């Protein structure tokens, strides 16, 4: 807990797929794909990664000229690249902006995030492909973006930081839950060993369920008995009521034995 950080310092696909970075199993197939992917940053990319901004959620109609006009007010731009499809030439909705000075980079990241450009709210952050160790892009199941509808939420970034894990150390556990947990662990160990104790455990569970059903049946029987007893009290006198009650009770008990 001492080294916890809401922003990932090293990219781990399994942690990125967890809201607090504590999951032990992937929750979707994309995380599996990212865990077994081996990605190397493109060495052909020019520019200083420490002075480069990542700009996403762009309107498909936004051009390089428009982006340069927007981001040049934060400082001198050294290089700007709007990523386009290699076949169609259409914008993919994200770009990279390299500044000449670090203070321009920091200011643009702080002020341009959620800026509306061509009716779209921009997302602006530092470049991570060449700066975050272990980075896996979205097309391989990684990244730190995604929408809830797609089921591929990723955490550990500026847009969705990690939530602080709940520290359960020192928290008293309810005794009933503790006993149930120990019994479940004992049954699981027996199943893993392949022993015969699992059948006895199953029989214990069946006996508990049967006792619960018998108790419910007895309660229902008693309610019916008292309801008929109340009806008889209106029709007969006080002297005959005791005899009829005993006969009715014996009738219900006889019916249960059948």
Task: Please summarize what this structure is.
41% of the residues lie in helices and 12% in strands. It has seven helices and six strands.
What does this protein structure show overall?
The protein has helices at 13-16, 29-35, 64-71, 102-111, 175-193, 197-235, 238-257; strands spanning 52-56, 77-84, 91-99, 116-117, 120-121, 123-126. The chain is an alpha+beta fold and 258 residues long. A hairpin with a 2-residue loop joins strand 4 and strand 5.
Which H/E pattern describes the elements?
HHEHEEHEEEHHH
Low-confidence stretches: 173-181
Provide the residue-averaged pLDDT: 79
Structural class: alpha+beta
Strands, total number: 6
Beta-strand percent range: 5-15%
Helix segment tally: 7
**Helical content class:** 40-55%
Distance between the termini: 63 Å
Shape: elongated
Radius of gyration: 34 Å
Strand arrangement across the biggest beta sheet:
2-3-1-6
Largest sheet: 4 strands, antiparallel
What is the element layout, followed by pairings?
Blueprint: H1 13-16, H2 29-35, E1 52-56, H3 64-71, E2 77-84, E3 91-99, H4 102-111, E4 116-117, E5 120-121, E6 123-126, H5 175-193, H6 197-235, H7 238-257
Antiparallel strand pairs: 1-3, 1-6, 2-3, 4-5
Helix pairs in contact: 6-7
Give the key terms:
alpha+beta, four-stranded antiparallel beta sheet, two-stranded antiparallel sheet, elongated
């Amino acid at each position: 807990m001492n080294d916890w950080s809401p922003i990932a310092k090293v990219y781990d696909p399994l942690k990125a797929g967890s809201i607090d970075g504590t999951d032990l199993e992937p929750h979707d197939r994309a995380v599996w794909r990212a865990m077994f992917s081996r990605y190397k940053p493109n060495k052909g990319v020019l520019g200083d990664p420490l002075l480069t901004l990542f700009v996403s959620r762009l309107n498909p109609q936004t051009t390089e000229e428009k982006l340069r006009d927007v981001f040049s007010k934060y400082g001198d731009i050294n290089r700007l690249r709007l990523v386009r499809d290699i076949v169609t030439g259409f914008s993919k909705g994200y770009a990279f902006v390299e500044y000449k000075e670090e203070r321009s980079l920091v200011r643009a990241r702080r002020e341009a995030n959620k800026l509306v450009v061509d009716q779209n709210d921009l997302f602006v952050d530092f470049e991570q492909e060449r700066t975050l160790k272990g980075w896996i892009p979205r097309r391989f199941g990684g990244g730190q973006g995604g929408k809830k509808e797609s089921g591929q939420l990723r955490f550990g970034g500026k847009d969705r930081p990690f939530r602080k894990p709940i520290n359960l150390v020192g928290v008293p556990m309810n005794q009933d839950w503790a006993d149930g947990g120990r019994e479940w662990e004992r049954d699981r160990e027996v199943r893993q060993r392949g022993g015969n104790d699992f059948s006895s455990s199953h029989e214990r569970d069946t006996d508990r369920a049967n006792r619960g059903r018998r108790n419910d049946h007895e309660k229902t029987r008693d309610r019916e008995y008292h309801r008929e007893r109340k009806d008889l009290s209106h029709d007969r006198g006080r002297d005959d009521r005791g005899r009829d009650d005993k006969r009715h009770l014996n009738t219900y008990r006889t019916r249960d034995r059948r």
